[in-house]
Amino acid sequence: MEPGNSTEVAKFLLLGLSEEPELQPLIFEIFLSMYLITVFGNLLIIVAVRSDSHLHTPMYFFLSNLSFVDICFTSTTIPKMLWNIQNKSKAITFDGCITQMYFYILFAGLDDVLLSVMAYDRFVAICHPLHYMDIMNPGLCGLLVLLSWVMMAMYSLLHSLMVLRLSFCIDLEIPHFFCEIKQLVQLACSDTFLNNIMMHVGAGLLGGSTLTGILYSYFKIISSICRISSAQGKHKAFYTCVSHLSVVSLFYCTSLGVYLSSSTTHSSQSSATASVMYTVVTPMLNPFIYSLRNRDIKRALQRLFGMEKFTKGHFVLRLNKCTS
C-alpha cells in the first residue's frame, strides 16, 4: 500500500466494540445509561461542593475538579460513539480523530495528576494538621490545578503533533470505539519509532511520577497514623483517606488491566473492551465512592435536596410520640 500524506486523509473508521448489527441497540442503551449516570453523578458532586460552605476546603476543591475532568473525559469518547451507532456510521474525520485523541490524553492525564495532588493534600492534612490551612492555602491549591492543566495540555499537544507528522496507509480502520493513540500510530505507513518511544517514555514518566507521589504520601500517612495513641484517632485519620484510596485503587487497577490486556492479547477488540473499565466505568463509579463513603458529601447532598430538614423533622416527630 502506498503511503500518503496525513493531510490527505479524509476520515477514519471506528469499528467500535462489536460489528454485530443486532448488538448495536444494546450497546447504545448501556453506554447511554452509563454516560448519563456519569454526568449526573459528577455534576451532583460539583454542585454539592459549590453550594455547601462546609465543603469549601482544599480536599473538596480538588474533588470538584476531578469530577469536572471525569465529565469531560467521558464526553470526549462516548457521545461520538453513540452518534455513530444511532446513525449506523463508523466514520470520524481526520481532524475530529486528532482532536478526540488530544482531549482523551489531556483528561486521562489530568485524572492521574489530580489523584496525586489529592494524595498530597491528605498527606498534609494528617501529617501536618496544625499547619494544614497555611500550607494548603487557596493560592497553592489554584496553582496546583493550573499547573496540572498546563502540563497535561503541553503533553497532549506534543503527542498530537507527533501523530500529525505521520503518513497513513489506505487501511484506515481503527479497531476501537475512539481514536486511541496506539491504534492510530499502528495505522501509519511512515516510521513510527519516535512515536513509540514518546508513548512509552511519556507514560512511564507520567504514571511513574504520579504513582510514586501517591505511594510516598500514603507511606508517610500510614507512619503518622501508627504514631497516634488512641484507636479512635487512628480510625478517624484513616477514614478521611478511604474514599481517595478507593478511587486510586480503582483507577490504577483498571489502567493496569487495560495495559496487560493490550500486551498479552493480539486482539484489538479485546483491548477495546477492556478499556471500557478505564474510560467509562471508573468515572461513573467515582461519585458513588465519594458520596457513599463520605459523611460530608452525604450531608451536602441532603441539604441540596432538602432531605436534612425532612430527616430532622421526622426524628423530632418520632421523639415527641415516644415522650407523649
Keywords:
three-stranded mixed beta sheet, mainly alpha, 324 residues, single chain, disordered N terminus, 11 helices, two-stranded antiparallel ribbon
Commentary on this structure:
- By secondary structure, this protein is mainly α.
- It is built from eleven helices and five strands, in the order ββααβαααββαααααα.
- It has helices at residues 24-51, 58-86, 94-127, 132-135, 138-164, 181-186, 193-226, 231-264, 268-292, 295-304, 307-323, and strands spanning 4-5, 11-14, 91-93, 167-168, 173-174.
- Strands 3-2-5 form a three-stranded mixed sheet. Strands 1-4 form a two-stranded antiparallel ribbon.
- Helix 3 runs antiparallel to helix 5.
Provide a brief overview of the structure:
By secondary structure, this protein is mostly helical. The chain has eleven helices and five strands.
Question: Largest beta sheet: what is the strand line-up?
Answer: 3-2-5
Fraction in beta strands: under 5%
Tell me, rounded to a whole number, the average pLDDT: 87
Rg of Cα set: 23 Å
Residues in helices, as a percent range: over 70%
Number of strands: 5
Helix and strand run: EEHHEHHHEEHHHHHH
Globally, the shape reads globular
Low-confidence stretches: 1-7, 310-317
Structural class: mainly alpha
The main sheet comes to:
3 strands, mixed
First-last Cα distance: 89 Å
- Helix tally equals 11
